[in-house]
């Protein structure tokens, strides 16, 4: 037993994108990029460990920008944290255009490596003495990953449950495509250029092959060239060596309007296993693709139709994994809240206008994807970079003006929303603006949170326009943070209320997720809680009960 890793490891690799590295669009192929990322991360891990290392998993790979022929890539890899027998390596890829000197982020990922000592012994790592933000984030990712099996089981049961409409009735759509047509199988022979100095196949090479078959599978559904956006749950279950035959099977698991999930399974055979048809399962991953038109606009994928029991399992599994990805994103991308706008006489008009305008901008964004459908409730999510937003649609059987009157008075909120304890009016600016002090209960042993929010309301100028109730945090010098509470921020939230008839309306709630609300939403996104659905049902009951008395 050895203890290694007293010093951290970081490396930097630079590559020029040549035509041999590009795909049919003249952009750097995702497979080639994955090979370079794996190589640089492995070198960083070996620098930290002092011995040869192998890839155990690579997760949370995000592709943000495309690199083109002639541009220069810089791949930086650094050991974020060493655990007992493994290391997490953070990878960031940037591209520089040599003509205009503009630099953009291409990709970011986190990989886990284990040491491969010369003998049969096991290597244990020393923790880095410097406790950085990366260390803290690494520990958070480990905790989230450890929840996956438990959360996955919960979500699968909820997805199959009676409250969800992800059931067989949706497969009766006329344009639904059978998953069978997306199945792709390919075989590769591992040769010396594909392996490292130990004779083991490069993890990056396997990733590149997997990306190829997954892209072909997705293209059969969209009849276009798919663009890889992320890779999740990339696991190495065992090694493969020079001379092995690798069989790749890829198939579309599910589609989510603007994205599609493709599952890939890799099996290895040596000569004897090949004859006996005895496969070794060595890798699996789930790849997320988009597709765009000539103008760069995202296209919608057709619905898919599972035709077998196994296809149904993969279909519901994709829903579960998407909810996990959303929860991971809300937890791991959460940053410290920025101070809100100072509420003072000189900028009151601007802050009020920006409150209404920000909500209108959020509501008008394209690319909202549905995650849950109940009888009178739909829950949508929107991802844009590191920003996650939520939309809840509620059909209510009262006139729109009554719903507007009730929802714009936040002193009623605690009657239907258990996420808030108190609402106190601090200042009535005018008939359309009020400032509230709001408190929320503690979550998982943390201090309770408090908010100072501006609530702006507007009535429609035209029948087709919605009633608006916009919410954002502001800073009041008369209400400084208290040591008893964790002062939190709401960046953009509120309601749009659309009239459907004289006796019914559609209420749409929006929230741009910040660290202040992540703790209340994460469990719901993973499926281990239905607090959003329950709160929406309580809101409908409250509105209809109050509306019947008016």
UniProtKB/TrEMBL annotation:
Recorded catalytic activity of this chain's protein: butanoyl-CoA + H2O = butanoate + CoA + H(+)
GO CC terms, sorted: cytosol
UniProtKB keywords: Cytoplasm, Fatty acid metabolism, Hydrolase, Lipid metabolism, Repeat, Serine esterase
Main localisation: cytoplasm
Domain of life: Eukaryota
GO BP terms, alphabetized: acetyl-CoA metabolic process; fatty acid metabolic process
InterPro entries membership: Cytosol_ACT (IPR040170), HOTDOG_ACOT (IPR033120), HotDog_dom_sf (IPR029069), START-like_dom_sf (IPR023393), START_lipid-bd_dom (IPR002913), Thioestr_dom (IPR006683)
Domain START: 365-513
Compartments it resides in: Cytoplasm
Keyword Hydrolase: yes
Pfam (any one): 4HBT
Domain HotDog ACOT-type: from-to ranges: 7-119, 180-295
Molecular function via GO: acetyl-CoA hydrolase activity; carboxylic ester hydrolase activity; lipid binding
Biochemical pathway: Lipid metabolism; fatty acid metabolism
Matching PANTHER family: ACETYL-COENZYME A THIOESTERASE, ACYL COENZYME A THIOESTER HYDROLASE
Protein name listed in UniProt: ACO12 thioesterase
Gene that produces this protein: Acot12
């Amino acid at each position: 037993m050895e203890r290694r890793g007293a010093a951290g490891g970081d490396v930097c690799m630079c590559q020029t994108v040549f035509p041999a590295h590009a795909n049919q669009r003249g952009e750097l192929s995702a497979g080639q990029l994955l090979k370079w990322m794996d190589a640089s991360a492995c070198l960083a891990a070996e620098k930290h460990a002092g011995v040869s290392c192998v890839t155990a998993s690579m997760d949370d790979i995000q592709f943000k920008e495309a690199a083109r022929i002639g541009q220069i890539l810089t791949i930086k890899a650094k050991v974020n944290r060493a655990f007992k027998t493994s290391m997490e390596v953070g990878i960031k890829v940037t591209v520089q255009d040599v003509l205009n000197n503009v630099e953009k982020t291409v990709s970011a990922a986190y990989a886990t490596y284990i040491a491969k000592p010369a003998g049969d012994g096991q290597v244990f790592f020393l923790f880095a003495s410097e406790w950085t933000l990366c260390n803290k984030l690494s520990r958070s990712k480990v905790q989230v990953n450890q929840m996956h099996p438990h959360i996955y089981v919960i979500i699968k049961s909820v997805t199959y449950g009676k409250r969800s409409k992800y059931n067989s009735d949706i497969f009766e759509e006329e344009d639904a495509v059978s998953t069978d047509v997306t199945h792709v199988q390919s075989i590769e022979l591992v040769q010396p250029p594909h392996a490292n100095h130990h004779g083991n196949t490069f993890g990056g090479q396997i990733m590149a092959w997997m990306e190829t078959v997954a892209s072909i599978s997705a293209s059969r559904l969209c009849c276009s060239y798919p663009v890889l956006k992320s890779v999740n749950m990339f696991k190495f279950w065992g090694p493969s060596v020079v001379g092995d035959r690798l069989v790749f099977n890829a198939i579309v698991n599910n589609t989510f309007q603007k994205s599609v999930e493709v599952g890939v399974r890799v099996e290895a055979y040596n000569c004897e296993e090949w004859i006996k048809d005895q496969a070794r399962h060595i890798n699996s991953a789930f790849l997320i693709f988009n597709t765009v038109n000539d103008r760069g606009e995202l296209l919608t994928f057709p619905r898919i139709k599972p035709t077998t029991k196994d296809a149904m399992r993969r279909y519901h599994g994709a829903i579960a994994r998407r909810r996990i990805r959303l929860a991971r994103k809300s937890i791991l991308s959460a940053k410290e809240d920025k101070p809100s706008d100072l509420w003072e006489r000189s900028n009151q008009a601007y802050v009020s206008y920006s409150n209404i305008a920000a909500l209108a901008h959020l509501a008008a964004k394209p690319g909202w994807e549905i995650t849950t459908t109940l009888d009178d409730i739909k829950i949508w999510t929107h991802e844009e970079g590191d920003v996650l937003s939520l939309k809840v649609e509620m059909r209510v059987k009262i006139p729109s003006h009554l719903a507007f009157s009730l929802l714009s008075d936040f002193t009623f909120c605690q009657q239907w929303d258990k996420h808030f304890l108190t609402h106190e009016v601090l200042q009535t600016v005018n008939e359309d603006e009020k400032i509230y002090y709001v408190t929320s209960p503690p979550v998982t042993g943390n201090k309770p949170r408090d908010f100072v929010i501006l609530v702006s309301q507007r009535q429609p100028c035209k029948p087709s326009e919605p009633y608006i109730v916009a919410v954002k945090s502001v800073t009041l010098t008369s209400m400084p943070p208290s040591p008893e509470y964790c002062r939190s921020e709401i960046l953009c939230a509120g309601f749009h209320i659309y009239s459907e008839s004289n006796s019914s309306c559609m209420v749409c709630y929006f929230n741009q997720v910040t660290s202040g609300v992540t703790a209340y939403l994460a469990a719901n996104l993973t499926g281990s809680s239905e607090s959003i659905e329950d709160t929406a049902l309580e809101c409908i009951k409250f509105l209809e009960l109050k509306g019947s008395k008016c």
